[in-house]
């Protein structure tokens, strides 16, 4: 039997964690829905967007051309077994940060729509989706103003009891990863090929 003091300490730690966790979900206006995560259910979102003076279809074709990523990105590799991509395709994201060992995450495609230029996947996690569901949506939308421009958007949202842990562990990491890739690599690459 654990001692009363130990139990009391655990209860105190639990209460402290609960207090921290309570205040950490993102504001409803800051979360974005994904196919299986409504705005109401989402615990958090980490996202990125960029505008390009280029046709939306051209930007889209670069974003989903995973086999060519190695030519312009050193921070992200996306490997799928077979192409063309379809719902149910399983792939691996290999994220590399300077001075750190590469990190691998497995994902499964849940939406791929080349007309609407939407790609969505869910993370394949070692816990059940009722405890934690993480989904990423990537989209390229044509802008009417200014004409000739489009916007690339990418966001991860998560839900479930373990989603609260993500708020103060991996949220910042995801955000920084998406930004490093987006600002420093995708933007440079798109601007170099459409210029
Ligand atoms: C999530 O949404 C997609 C597309 O709307 C669907 O195919 C899939 O079965 C849903 N459920 C899970 C758990 O991924």
Automatic annotation (TrEMBL):
Signal peptide: 1-18
Keyword annotations from UniProtKB, A to Z: Signal
Domain of life: Eukaryota
SUPFAM superfamilies the record matches: Bet v1-like (SSF55961)
Protein name, as recorded: Polyketide cyclase/dehydrase
Species in which this protein is naturally found: Lophium mytilinum
């Amino acid at each position: 039997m654990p001692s009363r003091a130990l139990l009391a300490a655990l209860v105190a730690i639990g209460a402290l964690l609960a207090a921290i966790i309570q205040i950490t979900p993102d504001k409803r206006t800051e979360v974005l829905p994904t196919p299986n995560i409504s705005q109401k259910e989402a615990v958090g979102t980490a996202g990125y967007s960029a505008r390009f003076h280029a046709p939306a279809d051209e930007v889209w074709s670069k974003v989903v051309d995973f086999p060519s990523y190695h030519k312009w990105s050193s921070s992200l590799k996306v490997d799928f077994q077979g192409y063309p991509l379809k719902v149910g395709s399983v792939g691996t994201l290999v994220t590399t940060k300077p001075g750190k060992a590469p990190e691998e995450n497995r994902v499964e495609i849940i939406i791929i729509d080349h007309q609407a230029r939407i790609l969505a996947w869910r993370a394949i996690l070692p816990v059940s989706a009722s405890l934690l569901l993480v989904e990423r949506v990537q989209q390229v939308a044509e802008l009417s103003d200014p004409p000739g421009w489009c916007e690339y958007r990418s966001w991860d949202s998560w839900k479930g009891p373990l989603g609260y842990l993500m708020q103060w562990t991996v949220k910042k990491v995801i955000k920084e990863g998406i930004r490093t890739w987006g600002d420093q690599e995708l933007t440079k690459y798109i601007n170099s090929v459409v210029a």
